[in-house]
Design a protein that fits this description.
By secondary structure, the protein is an alpha+beta fold. Helices cover about 25% and strands about 20% of the residues. It has 19 helices and 25 strands. A hairpin with a 6-residue loop joins strand 5 (about 115-120) and strand 6. The longest helix has 17 residues, at about 545-565. The model is unreliable at about 1-25 and about 85-90 (pLDDT under 50).
Length: about 625
């Protein structure tokens, strides 16, 4: 991933010999698009959203929350350090690199990084990568096909569960020669696999020999990227410095990126402390996710004088679903009528008006803000996917447009609460002495687990609304490390989670909603969905052979997820809110994916003007 705010991913060993034969028909290409053709052609010099002549130098200071105890971001164990991670926007490409890199101004296109080119036959049964002979790890050793094969096998065997689900349909990886590696895919349609493998990190086989891959470590592993570790204090801070001998500095895909000499991450206890730190000049750039803070917390001289800039950058990316995850592994959430009642009890309109200062939009789809969001009733093409699943999915999928309950925003939510009470009664719950209980007299009670105190004011009104139904919901806020451990092991009743989506959903849906992921600690199936029908729809989505077919399959999946009432939907914002000290230059173009701070550069003149206001 490039340095951006969005962020924002079963083993089949079946042979695919036909793919090996047909690979001879493939021609080398500098890029790969899941559908259509890549935007950038042979000989391009840089992406359109960068300044190819951005000056190098200076520093940027960033913030991270919580703590860290590991430099291994590829495993479930531990808390990986910021700037050294492999996903969730932590800047993995600063230290590690991938075979190819995705552009931010296309739905789903990748271009050669470690690999100079990719060869994909017409049936997409395999992908062959031709590695750049000049590609090297930071110690000067060459990156070879053996390193690529080693990485694939070790990630699938010992890495995050997401790797197993992501690479599920890859039958094998083989080194054809030192600079040529082929991935053979299991039979079946899976058009995005070449791109998925292209975005795989490449780790040095020799470095990891004799080391335990699935354990935490405070020894920074060897990478091949533009930065290496300069210094760190466990749990407190890390500083990366640009590698002057980085092999890839002149590549078109890297031009205009990685402009700072040093990048420092300082750790803060929570977002409230971090906000005060950026306002005091302790670090340079802060992505703001609190509507209240955005509306009220920046009324300070530095903002009024234009030294600390508060700016909202529009984006056009697909918004995933954020909301209260109802853990289906818990008995009280297994009845869909109960889950629907919990949705009825959430007063979004009042919350947006009184808590969020009217800044947000209610999320009505798992793929909101894009053509991927379902609307109305299923189309004829959608019905071809959905009708074979009748009896396995909610009947409403076929007969009703999904809508969220609405209120007038006054706080008087009586009508929706009456509807919720009726649903709970249908599900066998009744109120006795002001408490909702089941047939055995057991109370309806659950815990909402948080890792940020700032979320308490957002969740508290919902708890009060549930109280009116006789439900005893309570908020529990824990530290980052404890939250991470409980989250990974599904040890919670309810959490607030977000399922980020790309413009081209695919294999990552298996980890979000697939049955196999529900019992895999560390997976992103935090809901605990186990539905053969949803598994089928995911397979159809992955097998889509055109953009039109993909959109149809995503619409079908979206409807089933929505009508499953698996989450209490919250809100989204089609913009990136950023506060930053005026010491940077930045490109004029912002791609659809949103603001790209990784393309910014240090402006010495601006930095000198604000220096007296900044802390060392």
């Amino acid at each position: 991933m490039r340095f951006a705010f969005p962020a924002l991913i079963a083993l089949f060993a079946a042979p695919a010999l036909a793919g090996i034969a047909q690979a001879q028909d493939a021609k080398p290409a500098i890029g790969f698009a899941i559908n259509g053709e890549p935007k950038y052609k042979e000989g391009f010099t840089h992406f359109d959203y960068v300044n190819p002549d951005a000056p190098k130098g200076g520093d940027i200071r960033l913030a991270a929350l919580g703590t860290f105890d590991s430099f291994n971001p590829f495993i479930v164990k531990g808390e990986p350090v910021a700037g050294y991670g492999a996903d969730f926007g932590t800047g993995g490409e600063y230290v590690f690199e991938t075979l190819m890199v995705r552009s931010a101004d296309e739905p789903a296109s990748d271009y050669g990084l470690i690999a100079a080119s990719i060869e994909v036959p017409p049936d997409r049964s395999s992908a062959t990568f031709n590695l750049r002979p000049e590609a090297k790890f930071a110690d000067g050793s060459p990156i070879t096909a053996d390193d690529v094969v080693f990485t694939f096998n070790i990630l699938k065997e010992k890495g995050w569960p997401s790797y197993r689900f992501y690479y599920q349909s890859v039958a094998k990886a083989e080194a054809l020669d030192p600079h040529r590696v082929r991935f053979v895919f299991a039979p079946g349609d899976n058009r995005e696999l070449p791109g998925i493998i292209g975005e795989m990190w490449v780790l040095p086989k020799a470095y990891w020999q004799g080391k335990t891959f699935d354990q935490t470590t405070l020894e920074p592993p060897l990478g091949s990227g533009p930065y290496k570790v300069k210094s760190f204090e466990p749990g407190r801070t890390i500083t990366l410095e640009r590698n002057p001998n980085w092999w890839g500095k002149d590549l078109a895909v890297n031009r205009g990126f990685y402009n700072f000499d040093t990048m420092r991450y300082d750790y803060y206890r929570d977002s409230t402390v971090a906000l005060e730190a950026v306002k005091a000049g302790a670090y340079d750039l802060h992505g703001e996710n609190s509507a209240k803070n955005w509306a009220t917390a920046y009324d300070i001289p530095a903002v009024k004088d234009g030294h600390l800039i508060k700016k909202s950058f529009p984006n056009h990316r697909t918004e995933g679903m954020q909301g209260f995850v109802l853990n289906l592994r818990k008995k009280q959430f297994q009845d869909p009528r109960v889950r629907q009642a919990l949705i009825e009890a959430y007063d979004y309109e009042w919350t947006n008006k009184n808590v969020f200062y009217g800044q947000y939009v209610a999320t009505k789809s798992y793929f909101d803000n894009s053509e991927l969001a379902s609307t109305g009733l299923p189309s004829a093409d959608e019905l071809k996917l959905l009708e074979p699943l009748k009896g396995q999915i909610p009947d409403e999928v076929f007969t009703k447009e999904y809508t969220l309950p609405k209120t007038d925003g006054s706080g008087n939510n009586r009508e929706n609460l009456r509807a919720a009470a009726a649903l709970l009664k249908q599900a066998g719950w009744e109120v006795k002495d002001g408490q909702l209980v089941d047939k055995d007299g057991q109370p309806f009670a659950f815990e909402i687990l948080l890792d940020e105190p700032s979320w308490e004011r957002i969740v508290a009104p919902y708890v009060e609304s549930l109280k009116r139904l006789g439900i005893a919901a309570r908020i529990r806020t824990v530290d980052t490390a404890q939250y991470s451990n409980r989250y990974k092991s599904f040890d919670y009743d309810v959490v607030v989670d977000v399922f980020g989506q790309s413009e081209s959903p695919g294999n990552e849906q298996r980890e979000f909603w697939g049955s196999a992921a529900a019992d895999e600690p560390g997976s992103h199936n935090t809901i605990g969905i186990k539905s053969p029908a949803i598994d089928t729809l995911i397979d159809k989505l992955i097998a889509s052979t055109s953009r039109e077919a993909l959109v149809t399959a995503v619409h079908a999946l979206d409807r089933v997820l929505l009508w499953g009432n698996y989450m209490v939907p919250m809100f989204h914002l089609s913009a990136d809110r950023v506060a930053y000290w005026d010491k940077f230059g930045m490109p004029d173009v912002i791609p659809d994916e949103g603001v790209q701070p990784g393309t910014w550069w240090f402006d010495a003149k601006k930095a000198a003007a604000v220096a007296p206001l900044l802390k060392n």
